[in-house]
Amino acid sequence: MVPYAVLSALLPLLALAQDGGITGPTTSPDAAGYSCDPSRCQLPNCHCASTSPPGGLDPSEVPMFVVFTADDAIQSYTLDAVNQFLAHRRNPNGCPIKMTYYTSLTYTNYTLVTDWYVAGNEIADHTMTHVGSPPADEINGNLITLNALAGIPMSAIKGFRAPYLNYTADTLKQLYESEFTYDSSSTASVPVTDPNTDAYWPYTLDNGMANNCLTIPGTCKGEPKLPGFWEVPMYAFFDRNGAAGPHLMDPWLDTANGASSVNDSATLEYMQNTFTDHYRGNRQPIGLYTHPIHVSRTYPGVTVRASTINMINAFLDWAQEQQNVWIVSTEQLLDWVQHPIPVSQLDSVASLKCTTPQVDENAQICNGIPRNEAGLLSHCAFSDFPFYTCYGCPSEHPTPANPNPPQDSESTLLASAVSTSPTILLAVKLEETDVTYLLSSPSPR
């Protein structure tokens, strides 16, 4: 949808998206100074940082979750990259795989955000312009623009990940004040086989943070106290060097075991070994945290080795051969943690079920189906980066200072006719409707 020349010009910027690396442990028990009374902090709204499965379940009764996420702009090439790993897969109940896209808006094609959400995937906040330690307008502006130009209900944007995983205590407080459900920017940086592991199940900040205590000032030792706000740690893989050899985001770009070049076989080995340590232990989740540009076969100027793509698929193939392994979004993981039940009862978890939307083929509606969207898409021909939207072109590019510029009134869509299932309907076309009043409240929710 975007001209080749424009994409080529963006390559240097987008290639910088590889962020989130760590070189060793980011916390320790002394630095954490963490204390939580599980008799007073109970699910579903409070949970202590713990390596044990939630709900007191025996590990044998616990699903093994593989959390699949992507960061940064949503474009056709990024969705192609994700789909080469997920589109052909199913979970144990036969349902398609869902994932979380932590979306930043610079160079994002909004109609594809709509389509990805309607397909049942989670859309989360990654700031408007991809800045670490972000101010409030970068976080809340993202909510407003995703609502105005992609039709994502604000209430559906529950999670946040900081660009470069660069957050502060103030970032966490801002997310809490803006009524986010969770953050997923911290790292689990010590192997689960280590007695001092920080690979905790997701937990609430009623008693402060328990991760990244060596790296983030003003957190840990009981701070910040944010009741009911969840932290979902990002779980590292570890090569033969153990805690000195962690691999977090895009591990396939790293060299393994101190080598001088990337070796897909060595990467597959440590990914499988780390998975096995989790699976045979307390079954803390593992994650594939991706920047799709690095595994895109369709982005101009990017060369990705077929062996790397094959290796990632081989890992997922192997993981799915194990019993009770589920590939999920962050939202799905957190739903289970809040309401933990044994694997024998997973059929009752609504967020893991298949969705079969019934849509009138003659309806004019933004739902990712070409026949329904016919005539509704607008091409917003900005010189720096054109995009498409089903909600009317803005008069100027959204910015943190102005996240919802006036939109074309002739094609504006109201994102209020949202079904309880996001895969059913996003919005219906209304005549002479202005959505700005929906977004004028100082609260992003």
TrEMBL record:
Annotated protein name in UniProt: Chitin deacetylase
InterPro entries the UniProt entry points to: CE4 (IPR052740), Glyco_hydro/deAcase_b/a-brl (IPR011330)
Signal as UniProt keyword: yes
This protein's UniProt keywords: Signal
GO biological process annotation, one example: carbohydrate metabolic process
UniProt KW Signal keyword: yes
Position of the signal peptide: 1-17
